[in-house]
Amino acid sequence: MKYLLLFLGFTFASATLADDGMAILQKRCANCHDLSGPAAQSVQALWQRKGPDLFYAGSKYNREWLEKWLVKPRRIRPAGYHYIQHIKPGKKRDMIDAATLTPHPVLSSDKAEDVAEALMKLKAPAEMMGAAAFKGGSISVSFGEMVFDKFNGCMACHEIEPGYGGLSGPEVYTAAKRYQADYLVSFISSPQAWNPKTPMPNKHVAEPNIQKIVQYLQALAKENWDEKK
Ligand code: HEC
Ligand code: HEC
């Protein structure tokens, strides 16, 4: 009986943490992030979103990363969420207009814990996730880079280390720290299942190569980028 009470006490505590977290999300985050879905179905609707959707956060993020990032947010998309709004013409090619990028709101570590608890409860509908699963394994960074860059052209929009790679998409060298491996497999196999109007193209990468790309992203994420930047 005593154990049962302890257990009930624990689930109760975690439920109230999530409630507190949800209240913070509604008050301080819902203005820029969609918390209930579905994803934007038109380009216009997507353009009205000021940040990435969070309604499937529990199927996307690694909780540990979430708690740290919310306390100390660092830029992930070098040119902001809608890069078109943050570039200006340069001498040879477009440049990022840093003055138009604003810093992300910061949470105290207590609040970040509550918010992470609430976010991890928001799961993706089954049709978004699909049957994708990461099968494990590892790959060398140099072979991975060939699959990512040479075979599939992914580097045109993604940085594979700070200052190296395209700038219109999110940096990918921290992607495996931020995101669950199954989410990465699913997103790369069908970006449009997650965000129908995403600027990320479906490259129809063969399944074994998607596995290799996720192994590569994991190898990249082993470096301690946060301390290097
Ligand atoms: C003024 C708009 C705005 C508000 C308010 C805001 N965010 Fe964000 N958020 C953004 C933008 C823009 C990004 C993309 C940042 C980047 O790529 O560097 C982002 C990124 C994120 C990410 C990472 C998403 C990803 O997949 O890369 C998380 C998690 C997040 N926000 C959570 C929150 C939480 C929790 C709150 C409330 C405490 C909040 N945000 C409030 C605009 C906002
Ligand atoms: C034309 C530019 C472009 C190319 C080419 C491209 N991506 Fe992306 N990618 C993006 C953009 C933009 C996003 C952000 C998507 C969003 O917010 O909907 C993204 C997101 C991602 C993400 C993170 C998912 C997330 O939710 O933030 C991964 C991982 C990724 N791309 C991998 C790849 C791989 C692997 C390839 C090659 C097969 C590739 N990308 C090719 C533009 C591109």
Plain-language structure description:
The protein has 12 helices and 4 strands. The chain has helices at residues 2-29, 43-48, 57-60, 63-71, 109-120, 126-129, 141-151, 175-178, 181-189, 191-194, 207-221, 225-228, and strands at residues 87-88, 95-96, 159-161, 164-165. The strands form 2 sheets. The chain has a two-stranded antiparallel sheet with strand order 1-2. The relative contact order is 0.14.
Spell out the blueprint of helices and strands.
Blueprint: H1 2-29, H2 43-48, H3 57-60, H4 63-71, E1 87-88, E2 95-96, H5 109-120, H6 126-129, H7 141-151, E3 159-161, E4 164-165, H8 175-178, H9 181-189, H10 191-194, H11 207-221, H12 225-228
Antiparallel strand pairs: 1-2, 3-4
Helix pairs in contact: 1-5, 4-5, 7-11, 9-11
The protein binds heme C (2 copies).
One heme C (HEC) is lined by residues 52, 152-154, 156-158, 168-170, 172, 175, 184, 187-188, 195, 198-201, 203, 205, 213.
Notable characteristics:
single chain; Cytochrome Bc1 Complex, Chain D, domain 2; mainly alpha; binds heme C; 2 domains; 229 residues; two-stranded antiparallel ribbon; 12 helices
Short description:
It contains 12 helices and 4 strands; from the N terminus they run H-H-H-H-E-E-H-H-H-E-E-H-H-H-H-H.
CATH architecture annotation name of the largest domain: Orthogonal Bundle
The CATH class of the largest domain turns out to be Mainly Alpha
How much of the sequence lies in strands comes to under 5%
The low-pLDDT segments are none
Number of strands: 4
Instruction: Work out the count of structural domains.
Output: 2
